[in-house]
UniProtKB/TrEMBL annotation:
Residue ranges the record marks as coiled coil: none
Keyword Magnesium among record annotations: yes
Name of the protein: Ferrous iron transport protein B
GO molecular function terms listed in the Swiss-Prot or TrEMBL record: ferrous iron transmembrane transporter activity; GTP binding; metal ion binding
Residue numbers binding Mg(2+): N20, G21, T23, G24
Main location class: membrane
Sorted UniProt keywords: Cell inner membrane, Cell membrane, GTP-binding, Ion transport, Iron, Iron transport, Magnesium, Membrane, Metal-binding, Nucleotide-binding, Transmembrane, Transmembrane helix, Transport
Binding residues for GTP: 9-16, 34-38, 55-58, 115-118
Family that this chain belongs to: Belongs to the TRAFAC class TrmE-Era-EngA-EngB-Septin-like GTPase superfamily. FeoB GTPase (TC 9.A.8) family.
Length: 281
């Protein structure tokens, strides 16, 4: 059996370290078509399973704000890897989960590698991986990529996700009353017309319109110009409303709610706990 396994995560989360640990010398560097971003691929043999490991460019987000972000999400959407390992720096958990939430909203089958557990421990950070896994509805595995600790368990979990071939239900988080209403209306229109829904979840498309995602706007105009115009009009209207009433924009509001979702998630049942900060003692 074969499977494609993508490694995603923020820059400096330890992707390359994990990639090298898994693939050793069986790797090569190529290019993504049309862009200058490096594409590193390698093979990892797992219990008779041939895993093609792809080190995605490091990104903080999955909106089309940079070439890296477009490359990463295009790969996920078009190559449909059986599983994406989302490498999270445990010593910077809250910030790193911003990308995790976006991977979950995109609905790609994934598991979270909670890396840098040694660094986190030294800083007095305790993370309840079981609770975090329950709340996010994805496997969460603690690892230390630098030493290889936890790697076997991580790959067991990744293989399990790959084997089930189940479509991951996209995570739905609330963006507040104003936006949620608009998102639902846009979603209805998107679903009724099957507007790019073979590639993306309908809610995700609506959110990208609100975030003013250039690539999705362009694809939308090509796919169905009149529907695209209708969605753009809706976005314009809610933008004006938010500016007038709250002096904010949809993009800013979406980012605020995502961060809010993450911080309340970490406060729930002591998922995250910092006993002390070694640097401050
Ligand atoms: P990338 O940007 O995601 O590819 O991250 P790298 O693999 O280049 O790692 C960034 C830095 O973190 C490097 O100096 C690694 O040696 C270090 N690093 C990676 N994983 C761990 C880990 O689990 N513990 C510690 N202490 N350092 C790590
Ligand atoms: K570095
Ligand atoms: Mg790297």
């Amino acid at each position: 059996m074969e499977a494609t396994v993508a490694l995603g995560g923020n820059p400096n989360s330890g992707k390359t370290t994990l990639f090298n640990g898994l693939t050793g010398s069986r790797q090569h560097v190529g290019n993504y078509p049309g862009v200058t971003v490096d594409k590193k691929e390698g093979i990892y043999a797992y219990n008779g399973y041939k895993m093609h490991i792809v080190d995605l460019p490091g990104t903080y987000s999955l909106t089309a704000y940079s070439e890296e972000e477009v490359v990463a999400r295009d790969f996920l959407v078009s190559e449909k890897p059986e599983v994406t390992i989302d490498i999270v720096d445990a010593s910077n958990l809250e910030r790193n989960l911003y990308l995790t939430v976006q991977l979950l909203e995109l609905g790609v089958p994934s598991c979270v590698a909670l890396n840098m557990m040694d660094v986190a421990k030294n800083r007095g950070i305790e993370i309840d991986t079981k609770k975090l896994s329950d709340l996010l509805a994805v496997p969460v595995l603690p690892v230390i990529a630098r030493t290889g600790q936890g790697r076997q368990e991580l790959m067991d979990s990744a293989a399990e996700v790959a084997k089930t071939k189940q479509k991951q239900e996209p995570l739905e988080i609330s963006y507040g009353q104003d936006l949620d209403g608009v998102i639902r209306q846009m979603q209805d229109d998107i679903e009724k017309n099957r507007f790019m829904t073979e590639c993306y979840p309908s809610r995700w498309i609506a959110i990208k319109y609100l975030e003013n995602d250039e690539q999705i706007l362009k694809k939308g105009q090509e796919a169905n110009p009149s529907l695209a115009a209708r969605l753009e009009k809706k976005v314009e209207k809610i933008s004006h409303h938010l500016q007038r009433t709250l002096d904010t924009y949809p993009e800013a509001m979406i980012a605020d709610y995502r961060y809010g979702y993450i911080s309340s998630l970490l406060r729930q049942d002591d998922v995250f706990h910092q006993k002390y900060d070694k640097n401050r003692l």
